[in-house]
Write a structure and sequence with these properties.
The complex is a heterodimer of chains A (about 325) and B (about 230). Chain A is built from 13 helices and two strands, in the order αααααβααααβαααα. With about 325 residues, chain A is mostly helical. Chain B is an alpha/beta fold and about 230 residues long. Chain B has nine helices and ten strands. In chain B, the strands form two sheets. In chain B, strands 6-7-8-3-9-10 form a six-stranded mixed beta sheet, sandwiched between helices. Chain B is globular and about 45 Å long. The N and C termini of chain B lie far apart (about 40 Å). Classes of the chains: A mainly alpha (about 325), B alpha/beta (about 230).
């Protein structure tokens, strides 16, 4: 990792921690919760960025993985509360309210969905890829709406936040700490991945597919792997989001959510490690500051997005850094 | 001894438009073969067929004694075909070091050896490829292809659009590669430079090999008939 790339990424992460800690010390738990939301949405964005930013795979269906992760967390937690097993065939599986037990399930389920969706949609490119990923996510959305077992349209709530040994997950700063730690570790892993041979091939295939093939690399396998990893990170973010709200609903699976995750990435900086975190921070800050003023705050967000796409295609982080550092 | 690369009666085309009408050529291990012809006569199409980027509609294609006519493109590359394509040739956003390592495969060609051939790349390792000059990008493209440790290096218009000084530098490198025993299929417009490096030549005209033989046998009459403008 080059220094020029690492420092700004670290600064974004450090700023998020600073905001949460200062808000907690000054008795503003709501701001801590907003920072937690930034960490979670940023995590989902870091996941999408792996496919979109580094791989050039414009997935408009990442809500599928985000929502699946959320539903896995909520379903396991609600079964833990009711004591009824999740499945009885082919084996009996009970619910759990241990985050460390929930996360692997959320990651695996989201990863498996990404494997299936990716294997089919990566046969297309460009606008078709966007549409196919969107279609798969919408299928899951309508499935969730029409499945009464887990709340259907009303969603599914669980009353007690899941536990993490050694921490009180109900204390806002402690839950923030868990989310920020997950975000930080994921960012380090993504940084290592994008600098690895695998990451180089992924970025090279985005630049010129034919040339990559002529070098003896098959882009499909590389892209599918990136797509699956990307979905796994989004699924983990979804599990955390479920815990933040102690509630999941089909809205987590809807195309609005896919669009929001994409906005975090574009706003902050496509293909920049901490870009989605910065993007999510701006998004949440605008929602917090302007939401009470007008219901139409998203009009301003839209204007900002247009300006960014037109005049600063490298996003807010690219704007702040000028031409320096590009990872 | 079987040829390293062997094309027999290869036909190929783009949709309904046929571009190759039975190309036959072969290249032995350690040889440098010049693929010549006026613009639009099928040189790059032949390269695309060899690299399996364009399907054969007829004929045979073998490499290192193996039929590769049905191999997927990336497998052909893995089998030992190293292409330096024409046009903008590097992964622009990646650094020089990243460009060199992205497709590297173990073998005789190592990073120090490539940097010995192109010392200027060594000074630019951390720079994005897009910030390099045209000549440096070309050196990078050749270096990248060498690091895949190909059995055959294919240079398609390697000196096109470069300043004369830089062009001379690339030719010096190509001659050095020949001196080290690298098998090369080279496409270029400079008859003089090709004469100094190629062992044999094949001239394509309207998608067919109309002349082939040792470079020394390429007389003025042949040049005028097939290559003159």
């Amino acid at each position: 990792m080059r220094l020029t790339g690492a420092v700004p990424n670290f600064l974004v992460f450090a700023a998020l921690i600073a905001v949460a800690v200062i808000a907690d010390l000054t008795g503003n738990p709501y701001i801590v919760t907003l920072a937690t939301k930034v960490a979670i949405f940023g995590l989902a964005g870091v996941g999408l960025n792996l496919a979109l930013g580094y791989g050039g795979l414009v997935s408009f269906g990442h809500a599928a993985f985000f929502g699946l992760g959320g539903y896995v967390a909520a379903i396991l937690a609600s079964h833990a509360a009711s004591g009824a097993p999740v499945v009885t065939f082919p084996f009996t599986m009970m619910g759990t309210n241990e985050m460390l037990a929930i996360w692997p399930f959320a990651i695996l389920v989201a990863g498996f969905a990404a494997l299936v969706i990716g294997a089919l949609s990566l046969r297309t490119t460009g606008v078709y890829f966007i549409m196919v990923t969107l279609a798969f996510a919408q299928m899951l959305y309508y499935f969730a709406i029409s499945w009464p077992t887990y709340g259907g349209e009303d969603g599914l709530s669980f009353y007690v936040r899941n536990t993490f040994s050694g921490a009180n997950t109900f204390a806002p700063l402690q839950f923030f700490g868990i989310c920020a730690a997950v975000l930080g570790i994921t960012m380090i892993l993504v940084a290592l991945l994008t600098q690895s041979r695998f990451g180089l091939a992924l970025r090279a295939a985005k630049e010129n597919e034919t040339r990559v093939i002529a070098s003896g690399i098959k882009p499909f396998a590389i892209r599918l792997t990136a797509f699956v990893l990307s979905g796994m990170v989004a699924g983990l973010a979804g599990a955390l989001f479920a815990d933040l709200n102690r509630f999941v609903s089909p809205a987590m699976l809807s195309w609005h959510m896919s669009g929001e995750i994409m906005i975090f990435v574009i706003l902050g900086g496509v293909g920049r490690l901490a870009g989605p975190v910065a993007g999510a921070a701006v998004f949440i800050a605008l929602e917090y500051l302007l939401g009470p003023v007008s219901d139409h705050w998203q009009a301003l967000l839209g204007l900002m997005l247009i300006l960014i796409v037109l005049f600063a295609p490298k996003g807010l982080m690219g704007l702040a850094l000028g031409r320096r550092g590009h990872v | 001894m079987t040829a390293l690369l062997d094309l027999r009666d290869v036909t190929a085309g783009y949709g309904a438009v046929q571009a190759l009408f039975g190309v036959t050529l072969s290249l032995d291990e350690g040889q440098v073969l010049a693929l010549m012809g006026r613009n639009g006569m099928g040189k790059t199409t032949t390269v695309r067929v060899i690299m399996r980027m364009l399907p054969l509609t007829g004929g045979t294609l073998s490499f290192a004694g193996r039929d590769i006519a049905r191999l997927p493109s990336h497998r052909a590359a893995q089998a030992g075909l190293g292409l330096v394509p024409e046009g903008r040739r590097c992964f622009a956003p990646l650094t020089v070091a990243e460009n060199l390592s992205v497709a590297a495969r173990p073998g005789d060609w190592t990073l120090p050896r490539v940097l010995e051939l192109f010392p200027r790349l060594g000074e630019r390792m951390g720079q994005a490829a897009r910030t390099l000059s045209g000549g440096e990008q070309q050196m990078l493209a050749i270096g990248r292809a060498l690091l895949t440790n190909p059995r055959l290096l294919i240079l398609d218009e390697a000196t096109e659009g470069l300043a004369p000084v830089v062009r001379a530098e690339i030719w010096t490198a190509i001659r050095a590669l020949k001196g080290q025993g690298v098998s090369i299929l080279v496409i270029d417009k400079s008859l003089k430079e090709l004469g100094s490096v190629a062992d044999r030549a094949v001239i394509l005209e309207r998608g067919q090999a109309v002349w082939q033989g040792p470079m020394s046998g390429l007389g003025e009459d042949v040049v005028n008939r097939h290559l003159g403008v």
